[in-house]
């Protein structure tokens, strides 16, 4: 069986690491069973391209190097999506995988899904197009101003197999008319990667290297709605400065955020505060290390809400909705939106020890990617034999 996995932007790589490792385990386990196992082809779209946003993760997480890199780079949504589609179509026609596996909700995810859904393999009597498997299916923020929400809805509309991280995903997909037998609540592949690397992270010395105190808040910001306008970014920068009244802040800068901090002349204020530790995007192990030993995390990321829930570290999410509601209902996540008072009140309450008790969601046990590969093997094999 030929499975082609797509990865393009930073959060995809941690998910791909778990999938690649599960394929390996599967092939080893079945090496004596007489079938030729799974041929895993990795396509990197090049949506993210800086070493710190891409290449570094392959090395660190032991992901086989991509078989193909489309090198699309940055652009508007339309340009980036179109470029990926143009460059991906000939690859799909040539390789003709049985399964196209896409993860998450970035532009690379929808671009490749859209190509695969309409492709017709030439000279192929056994299959017309690949089975499209979406990992992290069914998540909905119900906020169509988020580009990722559009990507999620469209990817699910075109997928054939749906691998879900939390119960809300099952519910959303059913409401959208997806048949129950195509939906699999397998758990969370990002947590597979986290679990595999947690021991290494606990030994990392990034906190000491940055010279940060034992108690600190870890902050990440990169959502266009938070960092692309001067008004919003100025308000959030003031909020970060306010947090330093209580605690040190470590703030790795996403390229989008760094660029806008410079454009709106906000970076200097952060640099001049000696309780703020700015740094470039971090390697996975270093970031995990900082996250797991932080007092709290402040973020607008999707994946970090899940990672902190698993680590049971309080997470203050600067968004008014989340596509990952289990992190709020069961996990350690608080949705504050971007209202400064609400953010500061929540942080104050956490620092005073009034944070909520959290639990780890069902199936977030490090085995999601093994389940996915087993399910793909069994369902796709069955339908092609
Ligand atoms: C993308 C994803 C978002 C994900 C985020 C993680 C979409 C719609 N968005 O957003 O869901 O949470 O990745 O990082 O797919 N840049 C660099 N180097 C790089 C990559 C980007 O400098 O390697 C800069 C470019 O100026 C680019 C900007 O960052 O224009 C934004 O990159 P882009 O991939 O368009 O979106 P992200 O904000 O990273």
Give an account of the 3D structure.
The chain contains 17 helices and 13 strands. It has helices at residues 10-29, 55-60, 77-95, 107-118, 147-158, 167-175, 189-203, 206-210, 224-227, 230-243, 255-263, 267-272, 284-292, 303-311, 326-329, 340-351, 368-384; strands at residues 2-7, 39-44, 68-69, 99-103, 131-135, 161-164, 183-185, 216-220, 248-252, 276-279, 296-299, 315-317, 333-335. The strands form two sheets. Strands 3-2-1-4-5-6-7 form a seven-stranded parallel beta sheet, with helices on both faces. Strands 10-9-8-11-12-13 form a six-stranded parallel beta sheet, sandwiched between helices. The longest helix is centred in the N-terminal third of the chain and has 20 residues, at 10-29. The model has no long low-confidence stretch (mean pLDDT 96). Uridine-diphosphate-N-acetylglucosamine (UD1) binds at residues 9-11, 47-50, 53-54, 74, 106-107, 147-148, 222, 254-256, 259.
Features:
seven-stranded parallel β-sheet; 17 helices; binds uridine-diphosphate-N-acetylglucosamine
Main β-sheet, spatial strand arrangement = 3-2-1-4-5-6-7
Q: Could you say which overall geometry the principal axes of the C-alpha atoms support?
A: globular
Mean pLDDT across the residues is 96
Gyration radius over CA: 21 Å
The portion of residues assigned to helices is: 40-55%
Enumerate how many helices there are, as a single number: 17
Uncertain runs are: none
**β-sheet strand percentage:** 5-15%
Largest sheet: 7 strands, parallel
Oligomer: single chain
Distance between the termini: 12 Å
Which cofactors or ions or other ligands sit in this model?
Answer: uridine-diphosphate-N-acetylglucosamine
DSSP strand count: 13
Category from helices, strands and their pairing = alpha/beta
């Amino acid at each position: 069986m030929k499975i082609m996995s797509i990865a393009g932007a930073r959060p995809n790589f941690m998910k791909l690491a778990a999938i690649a490792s599960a394929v390996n385990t599967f092939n080893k386990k079945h090496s004596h069973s007489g079938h030729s196992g799974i041929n895993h082809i990795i396509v990197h779209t090049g949506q993210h391209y800086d070493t710190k946003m891409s290449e570094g993760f392959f090395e660190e997480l032991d992901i086989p190097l991509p078989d193909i890199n489309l090198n699309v780079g940055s652009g508007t949504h339309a340009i980036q999506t179109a470029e990926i589609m143009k460059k991906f179509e000939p690859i799909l026609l040539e390789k003709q995988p049985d399964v196209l596996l896409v993860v998450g909700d970035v532009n690379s995810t929808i671009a490749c899904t859209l190509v695969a859904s309409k492709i017709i393999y030439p000279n192929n009597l056994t299959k017309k197009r690949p089975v499209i498997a979406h990992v992290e299916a069914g998540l909905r923020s119900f906020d169509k101003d988020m580009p990722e929400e559009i990507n999620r809805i469209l990817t699910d509309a075109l997928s054939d197999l749906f691998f879900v991280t939390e119960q809300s995903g099952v519910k959303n997909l059913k409401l959208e008319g997806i048949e129950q037998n195509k939906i699999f609540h397998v758990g969370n592949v990002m947590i597979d990667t986290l679990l595999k690397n947690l021991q290494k992270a606990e030994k990392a010395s990034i906190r000491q290297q940055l010279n940060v105190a034992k108690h600190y808040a870890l902050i990440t910001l990169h959502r266009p709605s938070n960092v692309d306008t001067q008004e919003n970014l100025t308000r959030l920068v003031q909020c970060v400065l306010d947090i330093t009244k209580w605690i040190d802040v470590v703030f790795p800068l996403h390229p989008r955020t760094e660029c806008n901090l410079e454009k709106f002349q906000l970076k200097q204020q952060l640099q001049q505060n000696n309780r703020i530790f700015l740094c470039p995007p971090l390697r996975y192990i270093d970031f995990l290390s900082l996250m797991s030993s932080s007092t709290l995390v402040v973020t607008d990321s999707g994946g970090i809400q899940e990672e902190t829930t698993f680590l049971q570290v309080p997470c203050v999410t600067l968004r008014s909705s989340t596509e990952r509601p289990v992190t709020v209902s069961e996990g350690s996540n608080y949705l504050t939106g971007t209202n400064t008072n609400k953010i500061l009140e929540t942080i104050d309450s956490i620092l005073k020890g009034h944070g909520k008790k959290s639990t780890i969601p069902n199936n977030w046990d490090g085995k999601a990617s093994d389940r996915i590969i087993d399910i793909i093997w069994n369902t796709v094999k069955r339908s092609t034999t």
